[in-house]
Input
Amino acid sequence: MRSLYQSSSNSIQSLSKTRAEQKAYYRFLHNDKVTEQAFTKEIVLRCSKAAENKMVLCIQDTTEINLAKHAGRLKPNSGLGPIDAVKKGVGFKIHPCLVVDAATCFPYGYAGIEVFNRSGLQQMHYHQLRKLPVEQKESGRWLRGNDNVRQHLSKAKSVIIIQDREGDIYEQFTPEALASNAHLLVRCKFNRYLEDNNRLWSAIDKQPASGTYTMIIPADGHKQTAGREALMEVRFAKVKFRRPEKKVKGVAPFSQDVYVVEAKEITGNVSDAVHWRLITTCLIENLQSAIQIIEWYSCRWMIEEVFKVLKKECYDIEGSELESGWAIRKLSVMMLDTIIKLFQMLIAYNTEEGEALNSLIAFEQNEIKCLQKINITLKGSTAKLSNTYSVNKLKGAVWVIARLGGWKGYASQRKPGATTLIKGLQKFYNYYEGFSLEKDVGTR
Output
């Protein structure tokens, strides 16, 4: 774990300082007694303790690990199966439940991490598949995520479970699907029938606008769109779902009360305007509570960033040259845990509350001493180019790491991102190796 944090690499050779350490890592990952469930159990335990008495968001999503480029090297029957990304691809899926503070988005960890592979393509006819209980389908992972909340976040003050459109499953909105301290927030996928035989989308369209507010839409490099300030029009309504006729009788109530919130961008001259229809079990009484729902849903970007760091910007897990699917799966879980540290650093720097967090969250005492030495060398000729925070606090330590990663430190400059911190950490641990040799901290 420590090597993953310091080196940010999927290569065991790069993570290892000696040949003996390299062999040990390989043996560890290939040992059948070392399971991804054991990793997850320990990760979840830490998260559960951190979330006690707090209001948190539990953000769920699924990503594919595509190992098609290494298909000829991978061992058969080692936890891999067909995937969606490539017609003849091979890989596995990961479904984490990321837990963050509802006010600051500071990450506490994961309430669960489900890793699974398809054993084969579904041969069952679509209409037969629809009649199966959701627990027997791949989509049952959303309900299992809710069960993780019930089991591991029972001591949290309250939990808002956030899911994208794939989570728009009728069974999720039944009372027994959620813990007593949990609410569901899902982006709408289906134009469902309501108890009065109207459709969901037309019901919300008929509602008068409750008001407007502005929301910052970040730049999207993938879509090549610039960031902007969007003017959003908000509507909300209380509706009652009608159970789909083809659902197995007895598995859910005939109807279910939910709230629907619509956020529609009316900025003008925008080709890709934001239009969200959100379904929630949270009580919506006024414009302010509707806006809160929209802002909570906008925090979903965090899990997309986690996947991006796992698969592209940092660890590039899909480029792993390990020959066992089970080993790559275990390494992926360890990487997910390591990514939490990176995000704790990011959020700590971007929030006022981050100044109070101790650097020991992410660094050991000797590492902090090294950061203090480096901090002196980075001091600029003006106050604007100097670290205004103590390195003993996480915010001050992140300032040093970001500067090492190429960030200039100007207030007018964009705040450091994950890639900058990753580069800074790699450079810092190169310095720290020399610092350790001088102080001989490794033998004391």
In short: The beta strands are 55-60, 63-66, 91-101, 107-116, 158-163, 182-187, 211-217, 228-242, 255-265, 275-280.
